[in-house]
Write a structure and sequence with these properties.
By secondary structure, this protein is α/β, with parallel strands linked by helices. The protein is 35% helix and 17% strand.
Length: 852
């Protein structure tokens, strides 16, 4: 009986290629299958869909009532098995790599519509990581959709020819070549879309092939495609189409030319799913959901971070999020090298007027970066593992004439270095550089073995001989070409290298270009990705300011992904959730053109922790904050209902202090201007709203957290109120601003429970918030931290330096209760003061160029 039922179920699965699940069930009934067996078949299919919907990874936020029809690959499939075969040949292990890819691509396909539905128009977004295999994911989605009957596949591949060609080559290799009889191509390696004479030959019922079209986001090209599809409308009624928008935040969102053209293409296709892929979804999630646009109203999928991926957080570290133990948040690897500010005029023109005739100078730091690149390449040759290519990126400007000006001095340096390989002084300098770098980042930490300098020497002549200097920009004929054997290249470029294009074997980056938006900055990071066989060797030379921007961005990115995951568990839909995006004083969340629907951001502090980690170090600023803190403590002594003296622990708690005392302090204490999340006006506005609207936050507990007294490091707030000072070292930078310190994290989890009774030491962050909700539902907590002005770091903290302030520092932490009613919000603009920042944003001239 089981074999007979299995046969019926196989019949049902075959029917699913021709009909939607509900129609397939009707066909079973018409074939005379008994009601009991129909119900069993329906239940078995439902079990498969539940497995897909309830996968642990990837997380997804999904529109209500979206049916899951796809239950995974079938034995008769051709496209997906071919992709798997190729990945195995490339060395992908089944677990976890291929299994994870299988699950995540199945989840995305399950959110598309069944190809036999009469009509549909779906909009979704898939959020990955920069250089993390998004192309492989959408190739897998296309393969599975093709196996199930989707017919037309349009891939929007960036705005430059290089990325379009790279994407076309990948899709041809992984989809077309393994099953050539299944595919027709509207575009080729060297030609973007040009209208074909006879649409019927592609879309007529007699033609069962899948149609592949890889196009640039260029107005001229998209206009041709939209017109051609409009003319083919008679043949498109039964043509399920999948539009994949690679780098979906770039140019697509709210741009005058591209966005309407994508919507025009979609309007010609009665059955159409649009899925954007991006690692920086800031723009996509700030579209006005009510506008007729490409907001991902049906689903947002958050891809898991692949094993072994180098991301923003790995390289730059980040700040602790609400509820994290600061000791568990890493400072990042010691792979960032500082470019001093005085070097900047040597490698990029100061103004547009200086571009004409600009001649770059090879500074000491740029020379070190290049010499280190040659050493890395030699070391990788010795190891003989991983990616066969080795690339260095130099990125100082978007201007093509600036790129081209680097050609002569770089080639001169290469040729002179090749002649110097017999010079003991030159070799001694290279040896010192290699020993210094390999000591700072031990190979053993990454499961590798250090390559001795003596083993590099025989490789260096071949490295220098093979090293090409390539100007890869929109005006040059030279291009990075990884298809004809191993490449050793120093690539100088701008926008053509900053989006989507994979720089194979990228080892060293020299990066000083300033950009103004999170998404642009994140996409500039071509150094993110996989570094198999040389994970200990990558280095990035950049300014300290840029490194700080990336550290902030790593925090924003982690918080945004965490928010998407949180909404997963709260029955939100893509139309009701709004990801909180931290602002930064020198960065816009996304380019102004992309965020017209998101001018203001509403901030709510309910259930949040706020803490200071940026400080000025000059005496006048610090003494003003010391005065403000002493005044707060004096007012707390005078007004608190109860004082808890825990001096033996280095702690005091003043209970039930009136809110106006806290507001007076917040209006006097100076937060560093680089800390937008510590906006005193917003915080005070929130407190006042809660007091007037809900009667909450009328009372506060004010605490002091320090060390026990008696070691000669006491800090006195008021008579009989003194504690030992805390030590908080600053993040180390090569060229520190003497008046700026970033201590990264101030509060520990334990500090958020300083005013709770009982043993709170073992409570998790969630446990602390639960107790606060029960015991102190309307009471805020303000914690003062006296920080020693020297604050030497512990020897284990390699990326820390002494604080060295001119006076002791007062840190402030705030813990807000979770609201028990509708929370109050206060508004602030998601924008930035860019008056003192020299900015070069993405060049979108390629969008409307006729060169297509």
């Amino acid at each position: 009986m089981s074999d007979e039922f299995d046969g019926m179920y196989e019949t049902f699965k075959a029917l699913l290629d021709l009909f939607t699940p509900s129609e397939a069930v009707k066909r079973l009934e018409q074939l005379g299958v008994s009601p009991e067996n129909v119900e069993r078949i329906r239940e078995r299919h439902e079990q498969g869909t539940i497995r897909i919907r309830e996968m642990d990874e990837p997380h997804a936020v999904v529109m209500d009532n979206r049916d899951t029809w796809y239950t995974g690959p079938q034995p008769k499939d051709k496209c997906w098995p071919a992709v798997v075969d190729l990945l195995r040949k490339d060395g992908w292990p089944q677990d976890p790599a291929i299994s994870s890819l299988d699950d995540s691509s199945t989840r995305v396909v399950s959110l598309l519509n069944h190809p036999k539905e009469k009509e549909f128009s779906t909009r979704g977004l898939v959020v990955g990581y920069v250089q993390s295999g998004k192309t492989t994911n959408f190739t897998s989605v296309m393969a599975k959709a093709a196996d199930r009957g989707y017919k037309l596949f349009i891939v929007l591949a960036g705005i430059h020819n290089g990325l379009r060609r790279q994407t076309q080559a990948r899709l041809v290799q992984q989809l077309v070549e393994p099953n050539p009889s299944m595919w027709s191509q509207l575009t080729g390696l060297d030609k973007d879309f040009t209208p074909q004479e006879n649409p019927a030959s592609y879309f007529g019922k007699s033609n069962k092939t899948r149609v592949l079209c890889v196009v640039k986001k260029n107005a001229t090209v998209l206009r041709k495609l939209a017109r051609w599809l409009e003319k083919a409308s008679d043949y498109l009624e039964d043509c399920p189409a999948l539009i994949i928008d690679d780098e979906a935040d770039q140019a697509t969102v709210a741009t005058k030319s591209i966005n309407p053209l994508i919507l025009d293409i979609m309007s010609s296709l009665p059955k159409c799913a649009y899925v954007g892929y991006t690692a920086s979804p800031f723009a996509n999630l700030l579209i006005d959901p009510s506008a007729k646009d490409l907001y991902p109203e049906h689903f947002v999928v958050n891809l898991p971070k692949p094993q072994g991926h180098f991301g923003t957080e790995v390289l730059f570290g980040r700040y602790a999020l609400d509820g994290e133990d600061p000791e568990q948040v890493d400072d990042g690897y010691d792979m960032i090298r500082s470019v001093p500010d005085e070097d900047i005029p040597c490698v990029r023109p100061g103004t547009r007027a200086d571009v004409e005739g600009f001649e770059p100078v090879i500074t000491d730091t740029l020379r070190r970066a290049i010499e280190y690149f040659w050493l890395v390449t030699a070391a990788r040759h010795v190891r003989g593992t991983g990616n066969p290519h080795s690339t260095m990126l130099i990125h100082t400007s978007v201007n093509t004439s600036v790129h081209n000006s680097f050609g002569r001095p770089l080639k001169h340096l290469r040729d002179r270095s090749a002649r110097s390989l017999a010079d003991p002084k030159f070799l001694s300098r290279l040896r010192d550089l290699w020993e210094e770098e390999t000591a700072r980042v031990p190979a053993e930490d990454f499961g590798e073995t250090k390559v001795p300098f003596e083993h590099l020497i025989p490789e260096l002549p071949r490295v220098l001989d093979n090293c090409r200097v390539i100007m890869d920009n929109s005006s040059s004929e030279d291009r990075l070409d990884y298809e004809n054997g191993p490449v050793v290249a120093i690539a100088v470029g701008g926008n053509t290298l900053s989006r989507g294009l994979t720089l194979e074997g990228l080892s060293v980056s020299y990066f000083v270009r300033a950009v103004s938006a999170y998404d642009t900055l994140l996409q500039m990071g071509r150094w993110f990705g996989f570094r198999g066989g040389y994970a200990d060797l990558p280095r990035i030379w950049m300014t300290d300011e840029l490194a700080e921007w990336f550290r902030h961005l790593a925090t924003v990115e982690t918080e945004m992904r965490r928010d998407i995951d949180i909404y997963m568990t709260e029955d939100e839909t893509p139309l009701t959730f709004a990801v909180r995006l931290r602002t930064h004083p020198a960065l816009r969340v996304t380019a102004a053109a992309k965020m017209r629907g998101a001018v203001k951001a509403a901030a709510s502090y309910g259930g949040k922790r706020v803490q200071t980690h940026y400080f000025h170090t000059n005496a006048e600023w610090l003494r003003g904050n010391i005065d403000a803190a002493r005044k707060l403590v004096a007012s707390s002594v005078a007004n608190a209902v109860k004082l808890e003296d825990r001096a033996s622990e280095g702690r005091y708690v003043f209970r039930d202090v009136p809110h106006d005392v806290v507001i007076d302090f917040l209006e006097t204490y100076k937060f560093h201007e680089k800390s937008p999340e510590n906006d005193a006006d917003l915080i005070v506005g929130y407190i006042r709203k809660r007091v007037s609207a809900a009667g909450s936050l009328r009372r506060w507990n004010v605490a002091i957290v320090g060390n026990p007294r008696g070691k000669g490091d006491d800090f006195t707030f008021a008579p009989n109120v003194a504690v030992g000072r805390n030590s908080r070292a600053r993040l180390a930078v090569t060229n520190p601003d003497p008046d700026f310190a970033d201590i990264k994290t101030l509060m520990s989890r334990r500090d958020a429970a300083v005013d709770l009774d009982g043993d709170t030491g073992k409570l998790t962050e969630k446990g602390i918030m639960d107790v606060r909700r029960k015991k102190l539902p309307d009471t805020g907590l303000l914690v003062l931290y006296p920080i020693d002005k020297v604050s030497e770091p512990s020897p284990s903290k390699k990326l820390r330096a002494p604080l060295n302030a001119e006076d002791h520092v007062i840190g402030v932490g705030l813990v807000f209760p979770e609201p028990w009613d509708t929370d109050s919000t206060v508004e602030n603009y998601i924008s930035a003061d860019l008056s003192n920042v020299r900015i070069e944003d993405e060049d979108y001239s390629a969008l409307d160029s006729e060169d297509a």
